[in-house]
Structures are given as structure tokens and as C-alpha cells.
Amino acid sequence: KHFPIKRTIGEILTRVPQRFVKAVDGVSFEIKKGETFGLVGESGSGKTTTGRLLLRLIEPTSGEIIFENVDITKLKKEELRKFRKNFQIIFQDPMAALNPYMKIGEAIKHGLEIHNIGSGRQERKKLVMQMLERVNLSPPEEFYYRYPHELSGGQRQRIVIARALVLRPKFVVADEAIAMLDVSVRSQLLQLLIELKRDFDLTFLFITHDLATTKYICNKIGVMYLGKLVEIGGFKDIYLEPLHPYTKALISAVPEPDPKKKKKKIIPKGEVPNPINPPSGCRFHPRCPFAKDICKVEEPKLIDYNGRKVACHLYK
Ligand code: SF4
């Protein structure tokens, strides 16, 4: 009443700094059907932005996102809406992802209604019950009429998984999906994701800051640093023989359960630079223990190297 909308917007615009961050730059990778591709990196590396771009939850300014030969960046609003059931996302915070005023069963059923799956109320309810059981929330009747706040964090995340998978998607982005849970619940949820991936024939993009978790679920790993992909390789290659100095540092920080095995720690210098003004040349150069003069001026390209991909001047 007291602040006309125009004035409020004007005020907000004048207060917001007019600077744009290229959160993801020149990132290109391929995920094969049935694969689990792990995208790892510190916070601010652009991995979450990449996951959201793939589902067009954020509009890319340029580039292509090809899914089953369709460039989804070209889809119009209505085509995209129909296409959406093919790909789903599981967010980090289940409490924020669920409507606190909606009963669990209704929240899962809502997606079925939007995408017109199931022939009526009863059939949709049956599909929801089956899905609740499949994510080990049993007996399902006990969960269907409850609200999110009546459940534990692990149970809420199972609901989010059920809501995504009841639509029978082909591609799922799990964005730090188990990061907020207690350690014991985390391993149960990881096991559940592995089983669901197998049973539902899913393809996964598994986004995490914790390289150790990728060991259990990922076939392939992509390592991101300040909005760039710096290395891509099979899980074993990355884990046993990392190429990029940043990947080496990440691997050396993973705790080694066997006390007899000694690991050489590689600790990058300083803090992660501000993504608003990334360093010239190789973005990792101010922190890299192997940096050469060329690294400060020339950006390394992501090149093929012995069947893997790496962006670093140490490899030609
Ligand atoms: Fe280090 Fe240079 Fe390789 Fe960058 S390009 S990771 S600075 S050696």
C-alpha cells in the first residue's frame, strides 16, 4: 500500500551491483545411458549450476544440451513441460524441497497429476503407495497422510526421492542429495540410490563436494574448479592416478582407512579466488604447486590424454 511496486523495484535495482558472474564456462561432457557421472569440486566450482542448467532450471546464455538427440535448449515452454518428466532432480535440503502444508502422499501424487500419469485418483494413489514402499517407507499408509515436519531428515529425503522417481524419469540429477544427513543415514540413502538406479534403469548426475562418496556409486568423474571442467575420467583412473594438480589435491584429502597406506598430501596454496574476477590463464595457477610461467597467461584446453581428458599445461 505504502510502496508502489514501481518504486520498490527501482530501489532494488539500484542497490543490486551490476556485475555478472560466469558461473560455468565452456563446460562440455557426455553421460552415457545407465552411467553415473560424478561432478565434484569445492563450493563455488559451478557444479550445482551445471546440474540445474542441464535440466533448464537455469537458462543457459549459450551452448547445447542434447538429450536423446533433442537439444533441450531449443524446446518451447510447453514442449519442455512435457519433456520434463524424463529428468528429475533430488535437492540437498528435503525440508526446503517439500511443501510443509502438503501431506506426503499428496506431494508425490501432485507430480503424477501434472504429468498426467495414471488414469484416476485411485490408480495414482496406488502408484504413490508402491513408490513409498520402494523407498523403504513402510507401511506406506502410515506415511501417506503425514506432513514433512513429522518425519526425520532421512525419511524426508526418501520422500523427495519417491516424488522424483514416481514419474519414471530416465535421467536424475542428485545434487548433494545425501550431504545434509547423518553419517549412518547417508550410507543407507546411498545404498538406496544404487538399488533404485539399477531397478529403474536410471542415468545419474551425482553432484558432490565429497569425493569419497563417489567411490560407491560413480563410473565416471568430472572435476570442476571455478566454473571450468579440469579433468574427466573413469572412476578408477581418477582415484588411483589423478592427472590434474587440483584433482591430486582432492584425492590426497580423502581419508585413507588403511593406516599402513601412507598418502602424500597435496595442499593447494591460499583460498579459492572470487569467481567474479577469476585468475588469468589457468584459474588454478595462484594455488598450484606445479605452476609455470605459461600457466599465468594461457588458459589450458581440455585435451584428450591417454583416453582421459585433462586441462593442464603439464600434459601435451
Ligand atoms: Fe597447475 Fe599450470 Fe596445470 Fe594450471 S596449468 S594446474 S597452474 S600446472
From TrEMBL:
One of its GO terms (biological process) is peptide transport. Pfam families: ABC_tran, oligo_HPY. PROSITE patterns: ABC_TRANSPORTER_1 (PS00211), ABC_TRANSPORTER_2 (PS50893). The keyword RNA-binding does not apply. InterPro entries: AAA+_ATPase, ABC_transp_ATP-bind, ABC_transporter-like_ATP-bd, ABC_transporter-like_CS, Oligopep_ABC_C, P-loop_NTPase. The keyword Nucleotide-binding applies. Residues 1-251 form the ABC transporter domain. One of its GO terms (molecular function) is ATP hydrolysis activity. Keywords: ATP-binding, Nucleotide-binding, Transport. This is Oligopeptide/dipeptide ABC transporter, ATPase subunit. It comes from Thermosipho melanesiensis (strain DSM 12029 / CIP 104789 / BI429).
